[in-house]
Amino acid sequence: MMSDGKLTTNQIDASELSFDDFKLIVINDYKIAFESRQASLLGRKEVLTGKAKFGIFGDGKEVPQIAMAKAFKKGDWRSGYYRDQTFAFATGISTIKEFFAQLYANPSVEADPSSAGRQMNCHFATRSLNEDGSWKDLTDIKNCSSDIAPTGGQMARLVGLAYASKLFRQNPELDYLKNFSVNGNEVAFGTIGNASTSEGVFFEAFNAAGVLQVPMAVSVWDDGYGISVPAKYQTTKEDISEILKGFQREEGTNGYEIFKVKGWDYPALCETYQRAIDVCRAEHVPVLIHVTEVTQPQGHSTSGSHERYKEKDRLEWEKEHDCILQMRKWMIESAIATDEDLIALEEEAKLFVRNTQKEAWNEFLESIKQEQSEVINMINAFANGNPILTKISNQLASTPDALRREVISSARKAIRQSINSPSAERDILIKWYQEQAGINEEKYNSKLFTDGKESPFLVNVIPAEYSESSKMLDGRELLNACFDSNFGRDQRLVAFGEDLGQIGDVNQGFSGLQAKYGELRVTDTGIREMTIIGQGIGLAMRGLRPIAEIQYLDYLLFALNILSDDLASLSYRTKAGQKAPLIVRTRGHRLEGVWHSGSPMGVILGALRGLHICVPRNMTQAAGMYNTLFRSDEPALVIECLNGYRLKEKLPDNVGEFTIPLGKAELIKTGTDLTVVTYGSTLRIVEEAAEELEQLGISIEIIDPQTILPFDIDQLCKKSLQKTNKLLVVDEDVPGGGSAFILQQILEEQQGYYLLDAQPKTLTAKAHRPPYGSDGDYFSKPSVDDVIEAVYAMMNESKPQQFPDLFN
């Protein structure tokens, strides 16, 4: 029952257990469930009394989660949602003390291993990584992928976690990855509320797992509501397993095994989960366990009461069918325990949870109280009767459970209010605050990326090599050679997407590679962008190196929720406890038509902080970036130029080895009059414009940032402005999209503003999507003529005598 000081559950095997052993297991299960309920009740009180900000709990689902936990083994994975606290306690994934530490947002990894205070309570995660970013032995851990709050969002990742087991079982080339799988025997457990099964991502993921036939076990906690909205507004027939019957596996078909069980029936739940997970694990068949008649005693969350929207009869029914109450009755009727025994157990559990909560609260406050005391003393040391400073100090001293923000805010205010009274004592406070700023940066703002020993910034820079025998070929063929070389080098690499396998993608970058490396490594998928990304996230979390292809950049919007909510925030929300080195490959920019020429860089930049955004101008640069990413461990989006696949490029002799460093801008052309910053397909347009501009007596300097995130870390743009003092950003996004970010980076971050002698300008696409046809492209996106005239107009403003107005 005990593992590393944690109370956990054991599987019930009636063929081997004596009745006394059976009783001990059941009583232990009840204790876990009861403690979890007390944690929910006390957690709600902590929020309502102001100690915590918000609370969401798993009350009412304790007993089914105990049953699920019995089937969960080392090496398995969970991808669930914020109702699974009992499962977390029963498996040892979390403890009650860690639960309260997270409720209080304790920023310590030791106190809250799931998120270091960065997520609200009941958002669980295990730490897959060592301090240096290297992998732990995931076969020796009961693994929990980091929860996200958007309901249903966990389903996309679940597909990939399960799919990894299929690859580990069926691809013998992966046998050497002993720390990630044992013959693919791992099951991916998913949980979701009944109302969230109405979401598209649920149906997309459910169908994908049925097609793939992977060991994915989906539990639906069905309490009949989605906050206040009853099932009749959520689900056809008000029954998710009823409408999913068409997915039931039949002889000669793929599909699911579907189970249905009441959430208050402990023996039936234990039996059902054992049967369901056995077939899932052994046969790699996905299963659905629809757990019905679940209750939610405290309502949805601390934001409101369910008495507002549930009828009196429903509330009475929920009280009677509370799973803990029903389990208690069954235990007494089955002579497993007496009422007196259970009363004693319950009192002990209440005391334990209360003491644990107090311990977590005191530990949370401990370091803050020390900082509070220091700030009070430092302010008093130079207040010298100043009423404003004295008031700041007294207010802080009179706040018994001050948060860190109140301590730091008091220090900052005292520094501001004493600006005209310099002293050595004030300098001490300033120095303390500056030191704390760095400490708090680490606490609250660090690890957007893993920054471990496999960081892309530690990859050796290897130049492309050419010889007299180097061939000129299409850009698509160069990419193909890059992928071929890397797939031969690293068995962990897999690629999948719409039309990627048999035809080698719509632009032939993977042509012939499925035939060479097999369908397990180069794979076609259905039209399902959310779960293509989720498939990649799950595989990457299990040690593989996936390339998830989204056919066109415009279609990235169909997967933006998964990319933003899950992948981009993964390292940050676990404080580098988990990573998913997924490469998302897509293509965009210049083509024709509303749906195949997108460059929504502003959307991407706003949504995908936590991914590297690579915007190669040609396929040689793309290949070098892929080579870097394949040798590192951070997620990235690579946007290839749609109109570049059939342009001729010289094939490097080391096509699978040379690397392009991320964040390193490149000087494409030197110039003296004006700096033009652009990337991707517009770079060729700017290069063409430069030729006519030279004839007009204007010399432009062209800089390609190559990656938008990170952007020009060596500040090449600033160095160029020191010479030209003028800036034009050319971008295919809408006005104020990607160009606004580039301006902010150059003018603010690089302090390029101080180097300008003219207003910086942007040349972008129109505010609408590009219409179809070459004329549509010409009149809606920056053209050679637009670039020439924009540059000329800027020179006209600066030197009107030398460059008279073109149109007057």
TrEMBL record:
Pfam families per UniProt: E1_dh, Transket_pyr, Transketolase_C
GO biological process, one term: response to nutrient
Entry cofactors: thiamine diphosphate
EC numbers, comma separated: 1.2.4.4
InterPro entries named among the record's database cross-references: DH_E1, THDP-binding, Transketo_C/PFOR_II, Transketolase-like_Pyr-bd, Transketolase_C
Transketolase-like pyrimidine-binding domain sequence ranges: 473-647
UniProt keyword annotations, A-Z: Oxidoreductase, Thiamine pyrophosphate
GO molecular function: branched-chain 2-oxo acid dehydrogenase activity
Domain of life per record: Bacteria
EC primary class: oxidoreductase
PANTHER family according to UniProt: 2-OXOISOVALERATE DEHYDROGENASE SUBUNIT BETA, MITOCHONDRIAL (PTHR42980:SF1), 2-OXOISOVALERATE DEHYDROGENASE SUBUNIT BETA-RELATED (PTHR42980)
Function of the protein: E1 component of the 2-oxoglutarate dehydrogenase (OGDH) complex which catalyzes the decarboxylation of 2-oxoglutarate, the first step in the conversion of 2-oxoglutarate to succinyl-CoA and CO(2).
Name of the molecule in the record: 3-methyl-2-oxobutanoate dehydrogenase (2-methylpropanoyl-transferring)
Organism: Pedobacter planticolens
